[in-house]
Amino acid sequence: MAPRPRSYASAEEDNARWATFPFRRGDIVISTRSKHGTTWMQMICALLVFRTPDLPAPLGELSPWLDRLTEPKDELFARLAAQTHRRFLKTHTPLDGLPIVPQATYIVVARHPLDAAVSLYHQGENIDRGVLRRLVGLPPDDAPPAPRPGLHDWLMEWIEDDPAPTESLDSLPGVMWHLTDAWGRRSQPNILLVRYDDLERNLEGAMRELAARLRIEVDEPTWPALVRAASFSAMRAEAESVLPDRNGVLKDPAAFFRRGTSGAAREVLSTSELGRYEDRARHLGPAGLLEWLHRM
Prior knowledge:
- By secondary structure, the protein is α/β, with parallel strands linked by helices.
- The protein has helices at about 40-50, 60, 75-80, 115-125, 130-135, 150-160, 170-185, 195-200, 205-215, 225-230, 230-235, 240, 270-285, 285-295, and strands at about 30, 90, 105-110, 190-195.
């Protein structure tokens, strides 16, 4: 008997929604940590499912974030029930918080934690907290925001912080918890692990491999247009239609696609500081995962 999914809930998300979600054969669940390439993988799946860069609706409508509380569950489930295409859903819940059903495929995208942390830092400045609180039904918070440290100091705090991983999923322990759980399931036929760096270095190859794993056939002449549409520059140019949330939570849509490349943390941390990250990571994840994750 499969273990009961772990509970992950906050003021903005609740994975309990998955317990009553009616899966269909062929459903694709994209399970990632924040800033690990979630929207990129949603776009790739959209392009493969529809086999055209001319998508029939904005990405957030085609591939909703199922656990986010900005949309009532009944409305969201009705919207998903009305979809006739192969469905692909977004979640930031680790796999141990999801029902793992044989008729669905689960994709986990893994990014170097330091690169994801830099992106997370910059995204923090781009979120309108007042709009987000209103959408999830929280009262306004009139207290002025606390001043944030600079990127270097924030990264060092992030490296050293040691909360319970299941309670702080975007911390370093939380990121490693999500990835370690997926790594342990990688031999299961419906669990796919994808490295962000591999998407960055060989997007076409990664897309072709993903299409094969999802059993999606794409006519050969169609591939160049799909790969172009999945590029970082193309998604940034179409930010308004690609954004995961089109409800005003993000102050600047284009800023969501800030840079999209690897190595930003290495530009601000010293060799010894990078070594401290590596020490922490070794205590939080298995050696095989870290070797795969950090491979250049």
